[in-house]
Known about the structure:
One of its GO terms (biological process) is mismatch repair. With 95 residues, the protein is mostly beta strands. The chain has one domain (5-20, 31-87): Histidine kinase-like ATPase, C-terminal domain (Heat Shock Protein 90, 2-Layer Sandwich). 11% of the residues lie in helices and 31% in strands. It has 1 helix and 4 strands. The chain has one helix at 35-44, and strands at 47-53, 60-66, 69-76, 81-87. The chain has a 4-stranded antiparallel beta sheet with strand order 3-2-1-4, with helices on one face. A hairpin with a 6-residue loop joins strand 1 (47-53) and strand 2 (60-66). The radius of gyration is 14 Å and the shape is flat. The protein starts with 34 loop residues before the first helix and ends in an 8-residue tail after the last strand.
Amino acid sequence: HGIAHDEVELALRRHATSKIKNQADLFRIRTLGFRGEALPSIASVSVLTLLTAVDGASHGTKLVARGGEVEEVVPATNPVGTKVCVEDLFFNTPA
Length: 95
């Protein structure tokens, strides 16, 4: 549960995954879907804060993105798992 600090920015990169490290991994995939689009799409039209921590890590991570651009990635104290907060939805989208 949670996202490792060194992989947290992948959550906002379109079509990115941490599940495939080499060609052989393509044959081990057991899930299908378009999960790689949801967070980048929401982040592109909002201020998105992602708090995450993995079990056994010395600290969690806080990522803040505005309009799809990562503004901040810093260590944070938070429980294991991931929490996403979306603010100012559609702030950069004309009415």
